[in-house]
Structure formats: C-alpha cells, structure tokens
Amino acid sequence: MEKATLEAKARVERGRKVNKGRKEGMVPAVVYGNKIDSVSLWVKEIDMKRLVKKYGESVIVEMNLDDKEKRNVLIQDIQKGPVRGQYVHVDFFQVRMDEKIENEVELVFVGESKAVKELGGILVKNIDKLTVKCLPADLPSHIDVDISMINDFETHITVKDIKISRNIELGIDPETVIALVAPQRSEEELAQLEEKVEADVTKIEGVVKEEPASEGEDKNKK
Hints:
By secondary structure, the chain is an alpha+beta fold. It is built from 4 helices and 13 strands.
C-alpha cells in the first residue's frame, strides 16, 4: 500500500499574523503527542485536500518536517470555514509505531442488496464509523461493509459479519446491527402514522385540541 506523506514547515506566526499565510494557500497546524512537545506548523491546503481525498482521515501520515525529520502522525481534527469550507486549522497527533492506538474508522458500504434492488426496500445505516484499536501500521483507512448479503427484510448485518484483520480490536458488542433494509411504507400506513401522531399530541399535558365552534355559538363570548 502506498504510504501517505505530507510536507510541513515549522511556524512562528501566531494570532492574526497567520492570515497572511492563509492568503498564500497555507494552513496553520499543530502536531502533538504523548510526552512530545507540541510544534506549530504550516502545511499547504492543496496538499491536505489531496491527502484527505485519496486516503481519508483515518490513515498514518509520514510527515516530513522542514526536510530534517520524519514523524508518523494521525489527522486528529480539521477545522473548516463555514461558508467556503476552506481549511482553517489542522491538528495532528504523533504516534509511536510500537504502541497501539484507538481511532475512528469510516464504514464504506459496498455491493448491491437484493432487498433494495428487487424488493424496493430502503437501506438503513445504523452505524457509519467504528472505533478500532491496533498498532498504527495495522490501521485501515476504511472498513468495507458488503450489503449484498441482505436479500430480504429479515437479514441484518452486524459487527461480527464484517471482515477485518485479526490485528484489529473492536470495542463494541459483536451483535450490534450495522445495517438493514426496511420495506417502504404504503400510503395507507403513512396516513395511519400521521393520524397516530396527531392523536398522541393531544395527550400531552398543556396541549388541547381545538374543537370547531357549534352552530349558533357566539364566538366572541368571553
């Protein structure tokens, strides 16, 4: 597997002074870790976006710092602008390759479900990420979930059904449901559901369903 790499430079700018770097396509960042002094960095926004697009955020990155030293890091957090989605700040966590780490890994749903294609069901994803524990070298960029095994509305995919390396530990009940296919509701069922919701609302304390005024009743009567 191709190694994810990233160039970084030490940063001395703080506060508003980082705005100049941002205008030049740089992103302020920081790298820290257990018993490691934090270091402020600059990384190129275009390099970060290419890295995330290709490998995702759950991958060990070999960071080349000032062309002097290499560090193995994880993307801990990416802050983005609310309007354009530009990268505002990135946190990296430095890892030791001989120590196990815990990290969230994205689930990627692959394949085609017969219950969806032929029975018209709707795929329901109960979980989209799993927390794994492993050595950094064993950390997967994602975990595939093959939904082709769901042929009817009774079949569920659970944690124990997914295929992962023996070197990876999952801190979750193996019977936890990851995905299933539910039948679409008919128009009659949807209508009944709406009626039920309306009826339940009137039972809530303080909610009174307004009745239409009877014929001849003085609506202005106080």
